[in-house]
Amino acid sequence: MTKELGVGIIGCGNISTTYFSLAPLFKGLKVVACADLNMQAAEARAAEYGVKAQTIEDLLTNEEVDVVVNLTIPDAHFPVSKAILLSGKHVYSEKPLVLTLEQGEELRRIAKEKNLSVGCAPDTFLGGAHQLARKYIDEGGIGRVTSGACYVMSPGMEMWHPNPDFFFLPGGGPILDLGPYYIANLINLIGPVKRVGAMTSMASPTRTITSEPRNGETIPVKTPTTIQAILEFVNGATVTLTASWDVWSHRHANMELYGTDGSLYVPDPNFFGGVVEASGRDKDIKPLDGWEHPFGISNQESPQGPRANYRTAGLADMAMAIIEGRDARCSLDRTLHGVDVMTSILKSGEEGRFIELTTTCTQPAALGIEEAQALLK
Ligand SMILES: NC(=O)c1ccc[n+]([C@@H]2O[C@H](COP(=O)([O-])OP(=O)(O)OC[C@H]3O[C@@H](n4cnc5c(N)ncnc54)[C@H](O)[C@@H]3O)[C@@H](O)[C@H]2O)c1
After folding, report:
1. What's the topology of domain 128-293+332-361?
2. How far does residue 174's CA lie from ligand 1's centre (Å)?
3. Measured on CA atoms in the order 45, 47, 52, 58, is the torsion positive or negative?
4. Ligand 1 atom closest to the CA of 96, numbered from 1
5. Ligand 1 atom 27: the closest Cα is on which residue?
C-alpha cells in the first residue's frame, strides 16, 4: 500500500469544498482535520466531510498532520504559510502563493532550513488538455515556439461575488487573480520567463457592486484592472498577455502559441479539460484527439456542461514527490517564478520600463497518461 500523508486544511470557505471532495480521488493523501479563523466554518466542513475541526494552533501541533493546505484569502497566504512551516509541516497553498517576491524568498529560506516542501496551485496545467498541448509541443508538432497571445478578459467580479472589495485592491486585480493559471501553463509549455514589459490602466476609479447583498454600493479601485503585458521567455519566444476586468465582450481565444511549423490553440488554462487544436504550415486547423488522459475526463456537471475537475492533483503530486523524494510539479521555485512574472508586470506598468526577472525555474516534468494514473487511487 502507498504511504499516505496526513492533510490538514486551514481556510474553510468557498474553494475548500473542492479540496475536501476531490482529495479522496488521489493516492498519498488523507484529510484528517480542518481549521478557520471562523470556528463555525471549520465545524461545518468537518461535519460535512467527516474530519476533525480544530483551532489553528491545535491543527499546527496535530501529529497526524504532515502537510497543511492553505485556503485562506490572498492577503493571509504569507503569514499562514509561514506559521505552517514554523510548526514543522509542509505547505500547499492556493494561489497566489504570496503577494511579493520577498515574502516568497522568506518561505523558501524557512522551508530549506527545516527541510520542508512548499507547493502551490494552480494545478490546472496538469489537466488532460494542457498535457496534450505539452506533448504536442515536446514532439515538435508546431516546431519551435516563437510567439503567442493570451487573453483573459471580462467585465469584472462585482456582479457575482458578495464581497468583491479585495479584487480591486493591491494584491487583487486580474493579473494576480487569473494570471497564475496562464503563467503556470506558459511555464509548463514554454519554460521560464526572462523579462516582461507592460502597460496598465483602470477604466474607472470606483466600481458599483451589482451582486447581493451590497447591490448599489460603490467601492474604490486601487490596482490596475487592464494589463497589457509582453513576456520574453528564456527560449526566445515572446508572448502577449492581456488580463482585464474592463471588457464586456470579445472574440479572442484564451491561449494561442505560434511555432516555426504551425500554431497551437490551447483551451482555458483555468480548467483541466477542453479541446486542443493545431494547424501545420497548411493552415488547416484540426482538433488533436486520440489521447485519453485521466485528467481530461469529465467528472462534474457545470452550467456550461460536463467538465473535468481534478483540482488537488498538484497537492497529490507534491505528496507523492515527498514520499518518493522527487521534484513536485507545482513547486515553490515554479510558483515563485510566476509571482515574479506577475509582480514585475505590475512594476513595469508603474515604471514604464522592461523588468528583468530575478528568479527562474525549470519546466515541470510532463504528466503523461501513466504518471497521471499513478496519482489516482
Ligand atoms: N472560490 C474559488 O472558486 C477559487 C478558485 C480557485 C482559487 N481560489 C483561491 O482560494 C483562496 C480562497 O478562496 P475562497 O473563495 O475559498 O475564499 P473564501 O473567502 O470563501 O474563504 C476563505 C476562508 O479563509 C478564512 N480565513 C481568512 N483568513 C484566515 C486566517 N488568517 N487564518 C485562518 N483562516 C482564515 C476565512 O474565514 C474563510 O472561511 C483564494 O486565494 C482564492 O484566490 C478560489
Report:
1. Dihydrodipicolinate Reductase; domain 2 (3.30.360)
2. 17
3. positive
4. 41
5. 72
